[in-house]
Amino acid sequence: MVSYLQILSALNISQRPHEPGPVIPETRMPVYQLEWEYLQKVLLEHNGNISAAARSLGMHSRTLQRKLNKRSGSR
């Protein structure tokens, strides 16, 4: 079982209230939005190369392309 102290430590959060902790957004982001932003980040890291980005994500390039097209087509 994991204690709350281990969780705080893993998140680099101090128990002392005067020390600033991580900024936690007021609202939660939907999973599809988190995925989209992560895919965009990885794609940017690979200079827009879908094949290289897909390889680093462990997915087929067609899968990544479908995910990108699905989201961009809904706008």
Could you please describe the fold and organization of this structure?
The protein is 57% helix and 0% strand. The protein has four helices and no strands. With 75 residues, the protein is mainly α. Helix 2 (31-45) crosses helix 3 and helix 3 (50-57) crosses helix 4.
Helices and strands, with pairings:
Elements: H1 4-10, H2 31-45, H3 50-57, H4 61-73
Helix pairs in contact: 2-3, 3-4
Uncertain regions: pLDDT < 50 for 5+ in a row? Answer: none
Biggest pleated sheet: none
What is the tally of beta strands? 0
Number of helices: 4
Q: How far apart, in Å, are the first and last alpha carbons?
A: 43 Å
Helix content: 55-70%
What is the SS-derived class?
mainly alpha
Which percent range describes the beta-strand content? under 5%
Coarse shape: elongated
Rounded to an integer, what's the Rg over CA atoms? 18 Å
Order of helices and strands: HHHH
Overall average pLDDT: 80
In short:
With 75 residues, this protein is mainly α. The protein is 57% helix and 0% strand. It contains 4 helices and no strands.
Summarize this structure as a short list of keywords or feature phrases.
75 residues; mainly alpha; elongated
